[in-house]
Amino acid sequence: MDNETENKIIETIKTKKYIGVNELASIIFMSPSSVRRELSALERKGLVTRTHGGVKIIDSNNAVPNFVLRSHQNVLEKKIIALKAIKMIKEGDVIFLDGSTSSYFIADYLSEFKHITVITNGIDTLSLLSHHNVNAYSTGGKISPENPSALVGHYAESMIDSIHSNLAFFSCQSLNSEGVVSDCYEEENEIRKKMIKNTDKSVFLCDSTKLNRNSAHILCGINYVNAVVCDKDIRPNIKCELKTELII
Fold first, then answer.
1. Residues 50, 119: one domain?
2. What is the pTM of this model?
3. CA 78 from chain center: how many Å?
4. Cβ proximity of 141 and 122 under 8 Å
5. Does residue 76 form part of some domain?
6. pLDDT tens digit string along 128-138?
7. What is the pLDDT of residues 34-88, one digit of tens each?
């Protein structure tokens, strides 16, 4: 399945919440048999579940979202943020990228830089960087039991502690009205804390779907980071005075 077809199917199902195969086929101009093959592939990836001739997105309030599903959510906003964020990068920079899908989108644009070094705990991000021939290092560590697309733990943290970067790009699941940044993955927050500590400039990638939300594990306050890159102005959504640099 090509990415365009996959994105079209997922966005249609997200809009409808639940949709029959024949209706989906008519909307995306494919035969029902072709749609069934595509849905089988998406089901193997853990993105959708099929029931009685229809299909819906796997989306439980009690479940943490997997990387593949998150990488298909808010794609336009994440690309816009990535394009703004890479303007901060200079040739020769050393860059931290966390295991978030927002950082993954940044990685997709790094082939235009010839002399940068990237350190990441994102398994999918590392693979993408290798395709773009970017000089990249894995943090090492164990595969997160919560998010199999990220490396976490003592070895990963020690690797980050041994390096000082010019920029650290990261994202989190939530930013509440008090300006608290939080995420559903506890061990990934420990990686982010190390990245923020060991960089000249920490940059929070915050698409507007993260606003007015809370997650279980607090990372930091919004003013603890050096910059926030957004797809829209976040100031009306937070009560505290925003003192960090805002890029919109």
1. no
2. 0.72
3. 8
4. no
5. yes
6. 999 999 999 99
7. 888 888 888 776 677 777 667 877 654 434 455 555 555 567 788 889 999 999 9
